[in-house]
Specification:
537 residues; mainly alpha; Cytochrome C Oxidase, Chain A; two-stranded antiparallel ribbon; 2 strands; 68% helix; cytochrome-c oxidase activity
């Protein structure tokens, strides 16, 4: 793909430039961040917010591991322990992983399609500023009279009907977070469909844009479903309805159906943009085009479509009919096909390429390995007879942490190292980046792989106490989790902050094999880019 900067009608260019000057004048100081509408600034706000929430959720995770270091109750009562478990999940899913991917979308989608900004710049600002109040409500719920909700991040009744005021705060926070996601998704879809540079047809779009386009449709489809579920919870709690209250004729299992109809597409919302990042990084460091571009697009769409018909594989233990179990089991196994196409295409891209292993490529290859482990354990969990045996054990905890921590998080790290030179104008320290990678890879596996054995041996999740035979594995896992957490503190203070403050000057195209419009603008990317759309050949 090549671009001719400045191509387009002069009259149109003048109008765009004039409008940009009028509506998007470069603000300074605190106004730049509070009122700013520039997609790069808002992308940075999303990334900083997600990093803060990632550290907050990480502290809660270390509290959990601290309690589990030895059997019997050491530091926290079970109620507070379950508050930590619940808020760790909510903060990591809605406060860390999702906003991080939206931050990347804000930064990179306009740069990759040759747009001057996001389609709805002011709405973009508003969608971000819904997040901090939601985060404050989640964290403040710990300090209410009843404490934070302790019903698990899935908020299952009847537990969620019995919680104190912290549950209501969580419901309102989820509404704000969902509204933010819906507005962000509308913005991304409109930007991609209407603001691509001349000559950039849909099947010429960068894979990151494709994965985000499909993810945005998923968000619009399922976030209202979550809002419906938590609103029904709220009315059950305070307005006398009995949607989920069995004593009044309601059905608690109905909540699970509604929640997981949101929850399983949500799993792919948290990984599909990562697939897009990996689809840029592996070709760049293999010095080859992505193998099977069209099949990657179709596989992404297939995963998104299939995600709507597999929700009840989370519910095999609820006593559903055998035919329903078979349907959800086989449809879940079917998801492995387009996912396998992606893994095959990434490996085929590397095959006989001129590979080099700078930090972005290390994280991309690490992602391939750990995500495949998480995917294979997911295939086992999709089999109803196995799932019923290991349901709600640490085997499930191991599986989804391999997908989300070792999967989504590694993709985010790979994307950061790949595009940070374009953001900051400085090259990060390569030795420090590799130190971060190897420590992350080692400690993430030592943290979560032993959990498979804990689950197979019968250790249930969300328990603050456990039998003595699980002691050694829990102690080992707790130490590894602490080391993984310290590695991410190292990432913040020794890589991110120094990279913002200075370092070797980054070229416009710091990676030899990188392709795309984002590499045609200087590093750092100027405040206003593509006032005149480039022409893509």
């Amino acid at each position: 793909m090549s671009a001719i900067p400045g191509a387009g009608s002069p009259g149109h260019a003048a109008r765009v430039e004039h409008a940009d000057t009028e509506l998007h004048a470069h603000p300074h100081g605190w106004r730049r961040w509070l009122y700013g509408t520039n997609h790069k600034d808002i992308g940075s706000l999303y990334l900083w917010f997600s990093l803060i929430m990632f550290m907050t959720g990480g502290v809660l995770a270390l509290f959990i591991r601290l309690e589990l270091f030895q059997p019997s109750l050491q530091f926290f009562q079970p109620e507070l322990y379950n508050q930590f478990v619940t808020m760790h999940g909510l903060i990591m899913v809605f406060g860390a992983i999702m906003p991080a991917f939206v931050g990347f979308a804000n930064w990179m989608v306009p740069l990759q399609i040759g747009a001057s900004d996001m389609a709805f710049a002011r709405m973009n600002n508003f969608s971000f500023w819904l997040l901090p109040p939601a985060a404050v409500m989640l964290i403040a719920s710990f300090f209410t009279s009843g404490g934070a909700t302790a019903s698990g991040w899935t908020l299952y009744p009847p537990l969620s009907l019995q919680m104190g005021f912290g549950m209501d705060l969580a419901i309102f926070a989820i509404h704000l977070l969902g509204a933010s996601s819906i507005m962000g998704a509308i913005n991304i879809i409109t930007t991609i469909l209407n603001m691509r540079a001349p000559g950039m047809h849909l099947m010429k779009m960068p894979m990151f844009c494709w994965t985000w386009l499909i993810t945005a449709y998923l968000l619009i489809a399922v976030m209202p479903v979550l809002a419906t579920a938590v609103t029904m919870l709220l009315t059950d709690r305070h307005f006398g309805t009995t949607f989920f209250n069995a004593a009044g004729g309601g059905d608690p299992v109905m909540f699970q159906h509604i929640f997981w109809f949101f929850g399983h597409p949500e799993v792919y919302i948290m990984i599909l943009p990562g697939f897009g990042m990996i689809s840029h990084i592996i070709p760049a460091f293999s010095r080859k085009p992505l193998f099977g571009y069209a099949s990657m697009v179709y596989a992404t769409a297939a995963i998104a479509i299939l995600s709507f018909i597999v929700w009840a594989h989370h519910m095999f233990a609820t006593g559903m009919p055998v035919m329903a179990q078979l349907f959800f089991m086989f449809s879940t196994l079917l998801v492995a096909v387009p996912t396998g196409v992606k893994v095959f295409n990434w490996v085929a891209t590397m095959w006989r390429g001129s590979l080099t292993f700078e930090t972005p490529m290390l994280f991309a290859v690490g992602f391939l390995w750990v995500f495949t482990i998480g995917g294979l354990s997911g295939v086992l969990l999709s089999l109803a007879p196995i799932d019923i045996q290991v349901h709600d054990t640490y085997y499930v905890v191991a599986h989804f942490h391999y997908v989300l921590v070792a999967g989504s998080l590694f993709a985010l790290f790979a994307g950061y190292y790949f595009w940070a030179p374009k953001w900051t104008g400085h090259m990060y320290n390569e030795w420090r980046g590799k130190f971060h990678f190897w420590n992350s890879l080692v400690w993430v596996n030592l943290t979560f792989f032993p959990m498979h054995f804990l689950g197979l041996a019968g250790m249930p999740r969300r328990y603050a106490d456990y039998a003595a035979q699980f002691t050694d594995l829990h102690a080992f896992t707790s130490v590894a989790a602490l080391m993984f957490g310290l590695t991410q503190v190292y990432f913040l203070f020794f890589i991110v902050i120094p990279n913002i403050r200075g370092g070797p000057k980054a070229a416009a195209k710091p990676w030899d094999g990188a392709e795309g419009l984002e590499w045609t603008v200087p590093s750092p990317a100027p405040f206003h880019t593509f006032d005149t759309p480039p022409l893509v050949k």
